[in-house]
Amino acid sequence: MKFKKLPIYLSLALGLGQVEGSIWPAPAKLQTGDQVLFIDQTVSVTYNGEPVRWSSFPNPSTPHRHSDHHNLAQVAKDALNMQLSYTYGYTPAPGADYNSKEIVQAGVSRTLSTIFHKNLVPWMLHDKHADFEPDLHAGNGRVTALHITQTDTDDEKSPYTALTGEIDESYTFALAEDGTARIEAETSIGVLRALESFNQLFYQHSSGTAWYTPLAPVSIEDAPQYAYRGLMMDTSRHFFPVEDILRTIDTMSWSKLNKLHLHVTDSQSWPLEIPSLPELAAKGSYAKGLVYTPADLQRIHEYAIQRGVQVIVEIDMPGHSGAVALAYPELVVAYNEQPYHWWCVQPPCGGLKLNDSRVDDFLDTLFDDLLPRIGPYTAYFHTGGDELNRNSSRLEEGVGTNDTAVLQPLLQKWMDKNLARVRSHGLVPMVWQEMPLEWNITLGDDVVVQAWLGGSTIKELVSRGHRVIDSDSNFWYLDCGRGAWLNFDNGAAYQQFYPFNDWCSPTKGWQLIYSHDPRQGLTEEEAKLVLGGEVPAWSETIDSANLDMVLWPRASAMGEVLWSGRIDPATGQNRSLFDAAPRLSELRERMVARGVGAAPISQLFCSQSSPEECAFLM
């Protein structure tokens, strides 16, 4: 075993500023040149031949941009201290009846505002003290116009209540040497994806008064490999302010992720206001004010719509429902029973009863209140179903046993009613994998199953005909490797759990996330049932202070797997970490420039060096 230098041709191919140098996730087809084009705020924009009204202006809270771009400490400090409004330029009013023009117009404003006011001077992507910037006085051309053509009209379900796979997100993009840029897409969502690729072509000059791309001319043909590309936030174990959720939606869109799964309630807390059941949040939240009001939920959905993201709300049940007991103790079994590990995976335990008519009445009221309010914005509702503990039913008056032969028919009846409630409101149910695999619950063909335990799980589900979302905890759990959140005395438990790792340690680094192929080992027909994937971020040790660093840019690594596919069509081989690393580093720098505290994926020396300097080959 020893270090080896990469072949010179590979070293050159991997250099930043080459064909794959700027865009994440990698487009299906991309060609670039080496001509410099500047862009400024005189660029004209049209949408289907009509001028687009857009505005670009400095956010007053954006820090002063230093002309000394080598002042690393100050630049980093300023970027991390940015407090952004996230509603700059043109934005539709809350409650607006969104249409293609509204969405595209808002997307154009965000894109150009980002280029001019939240861009990066890419010194960290070049050799130390390199003279990498174009001469401001060399007579380079300019981007003068961006012409956007949407070839079809978004129907009434598009882009926010369509089922997975019903929205065409493909686009073509061209930037000619004469400075004319053109986007063509079938839907407004395709236009948004193209605008993000357009944005990633540009850098800020260290003068602070110019912006440029060194890659003209550019030609892109692009479309996703998977229709479902998601991220899950757990708002029960830690509460996240609405602003955190909106910032996460923004950051998702930069990697072309399109599904935000909100695991909004659990046994630890119930932060969601239900007007017809006001005691749920009043007693189930961590503190007064740490709740999501109906207006908050509407704002989150509408904000996501503008960015091509569909929000999926989850109320986990019948397990993971202990917080309901704080308001309605008669509905819940085994709440806060000790020792907790007899009754659930995490304290304070608690699940909805399986054989009690009062639970039916409660769920009828809950669903009739919540689902009509989210129905205009989404196609799905997640009903949970994970980690239901058999022992809990021993404490239920109408059951009194943990015998699976008794519990399974009760649970089947319970689930039939619950799924029917979701369908009655025009939504498609989602469940965790335990319902079909552990409990052998019969589900309708419409139900989407989310798989998380890895191994043969995906194969088992698709062989039964289920449509599947892959969240393999062996690869895609972002919360792993953060250490145990439990406490231990100095006795046997201390010895057993030392050195206090969490259950899914180690941390899933971006390289491991990038290596996972959700369709590996499946037949062609089976593979069609894998709709895509989702990276969960369970929040036992995640809150507002470290959210960005935990999520980004690791979630983006999954984003490229699902948008671009594991196989590089140019080589027929798995996509290389050597190709991905410099592009992911650049994406991370763009995130920081845009106000997101994303973690570095390597040391700065590696970002500034040729790839072989930080390569370990055998």
Quick take:
The chain is α/β, with parallel strands linked by helices and 618 residues long. It contains 18 helices and 19 strands.
Description:
The chain is α/β, with parallel strands linked by helices. The protein has a domain at 29-222: Chitobiase/beta-hexosaminidase domain 2-like (Chitobiase, domain 2, 2-Layer Sandwich). The chain has 18 helices and 19 strands. It has helices at residues 8-13, 72-80, 100-117, 188-199, 242-254, 279-284, 294-305, 357-374, 404-424, 434-437, 457-463, 492-497, 510-515, 524-527, 547-551, 554-564, 577-593, 604-608, and strands spanning 29-47, 50-51, 141-150, 171-175, 180-185, 203-204, 211-222, 228-234, 259-265, 310-315, 332-333, 351-352, 380-382, 428-432, 448-451, 467-470, 530-537, 567-568, 573-574. The strands form four sheets. Strands 10-9-8-17-16-15-14-13 form an eight-stranded parallel β-sheet. A five-stranded mixed β-barrel has the order 1-3-5-4-7. A hairpin with a 4-residue loop joins strand 18 (567-568) and strand 19 (573-574). The longest helix has 21 residues, at 404-424. The radius of gyration is 25 Å and the shape is globular. The protein starts with 7 loop residues before the first helix and ends in a 10-residue tail after the last helix.
